[in-house]
Design goal:
Blueprint (H helix, E strand, L loop, with lengths): L11 H24 L12 H4 L1 H15 L6 E5 L7 E6 L14 E7 L19 E3 L2 E3 L3 H20 L6 E7 L9 H9 L13 E6 L11 E6 L1 E10 L5 E2 H4 L6 H10 L20 H14 L2 H4 L5 E4 L2 E4 L7 H7 L5 E8 L10 E2 L2 E10 L5 H13 L7 E10 L2 E2 L5 H15 L4 E5 L4 H9 L4 E4 L15 E3 H16 L3
Helix pairs in contact: 1-4, 1-14, 4-14, 8-10, 12-14
Amino acid sequence: MNARIPTAVFNAAKTSSQVSSHWDASILQELKDYITVPAKSPAFDADWAQHGHIDTVVRNAAAWVEAQKVQGLTLEIIRLGARTPVLFFEVPASNGRFGQTPSTQTVLMYGHLDKQPEFNGWRTDLGPWTPKYEDGKLYGRGGADDGYAVYASIAAVQALQTQGVAHPRIVGLIETCEESGSGDLLPYIDALRAPTPGRPGGRLGDVALVVCLDSGAGNYDQLWLTSSLRGMASGVLKVEILTEGVHSGDASGLVPSSFRIVRQVLDRLEDSATGRLLPGIFHCDVPADRLAQAKATAAILGEEVHKRFPWAHYDCAGSTTFALPVTSDPVQALLNRTWAPTLSVTGAEGFPDFQNAGNVLRPYSAFKLSLRLPPLVEAATAVAALKALLEDNAPYQAKVTFESAGGATGWNAPSTASWFEKALNDASTAYFDAPCGYIGQGGTIPLMNMLSKGFPTAQMMVCGVLGPRSNAHGPNEFLHVPFAKKLTAAVAQVIAQLP
C-alpha cells in the first residue's frame, strides 16, 4: 500500500488554489453555456436526434476537454447506431517527478450530459435554460445533475499533472441517457470492455477505482461518500371505464369514477396513511453496516435531514406553520429515503385543466408511477410483480393496464478498503477540515450496479454536489460552486493515493 503522499509532493493548498482558479477562469462559463441548451434526455424528448441539443452539449464538452492540453489525453465521441452518444477520454499513467510510480490499474471517471425536463415553479428571476450565478450558486437545469462532472474530472487530472504527482491510467465515460435509465449505456460498456491486443480488459482496462460525480451530499461542510442507491420501477397505470366522457349528473352513482378505481388499485400497493408499501417483495433488510452509518450521519446532520427540502408553509395567528415529514426521527428519515420502497405519482393524463373542466365524468385516468426500490431488490422482479398486482382482478371489470417504462436495480457499495477510507478522510480533512461522511441516496444511477458486477474488486467513489436545496429535477436547481471546487480537489487527492 502506498504511504500517505508527502505534502512536499501533493500540496493541498496549491491544489485548492489551482482548482479554484480553473473554475473561475473557464469551467463556470462553460457550465453557463451548457445550461442554456435544453439537452433533455430521450425519455423526455423523443426527437432528441433531430433537435440536436444532446449533440451540441457533447461537442462543446469535447472541444473544451481537448483545449485543456492534458498530457497524453485522447478523446473520442462514440456512436453506436441510433443510440445516444458517449464521450470517452483516456489519459495514460504518469510517473511522478519525485520518484513515485503510478498504479498499474485504471481509474474510471463517470458523468452525464443529458437533462431532466423544465418542470414548473421556478423563481420569477430564474429559469431552467437561463443560467444565473448568485451567492456562489449557479442556477439552471443540469449544472449540478451533472453537467459539471466532465469539467471537474479534467480539472482534477490537471491538478495531478501540474504538481508532478504520479497518477494511474484514467479514463472518462460521459453518457447522455442517464436521466432515461441509461438504456443505451450497456452496449457502450460492452464495446469498451471487449478485449484488445495487449489489453484483456479492453479500452476500459483493469478498473480499480470508479469516480462517479452524479450523487449527493448531506451538507456542504465535508466530503460525502454515497454508500447505497435505490433502484426504480416506473410506468403508466391507466384505468378506462368509458369510451367517451358523459354528463356527471346523468352517470355518477351508476358509472364508477375512473379515479376512484385508481385509488382502489393503488391501495393494493401502498398504505395511503403511512406511505408504506404493502407487498413484502418490494422490501429488503438493511445491512448492519448501513444502519450504523445512518446513525452516524444522523448525528452529524440532525434536523438538517428534514430541513433540506422546501416545505410548504402558511401563516396562522401570527405564526408560521410548516408541512411535516413522514417521520421526525433523523435515523428513520435517512433509512426511509434510502432503504425503503416508496411510491410517487409524477404525471397524469385524462384530466382537463381547471378552465376546461366541465361537469363530465371522465372516460379514463392515467398516472405515471415512480416506484423507488431498496438497493438489494432486483428491478426486473419488482416490475413483473407490480404489473400483476395492479392489473389482476380489476374493480368493476374496468380496463386496467400498467405499461412499464423499465426499471433499474439499485446498488450497495462494496466494503471500503483501508487505503480508500484513509484517502477519503485525508482529502476531506485537507479541503473541508472535517472527516468524510457516509450517506445513502434515494436516487438511481444504473451504471453503478453495472460496474460493480463488471469490476467486483473496484472501490467506488460515488459523490456529488447535490446537497441541501440543490433540487435536481425540480425548480431552482443549483450547483454550489464553492463545494464543487473543494470536491474537485478532493477527487484529485484520492486518485493520487490509489495503491
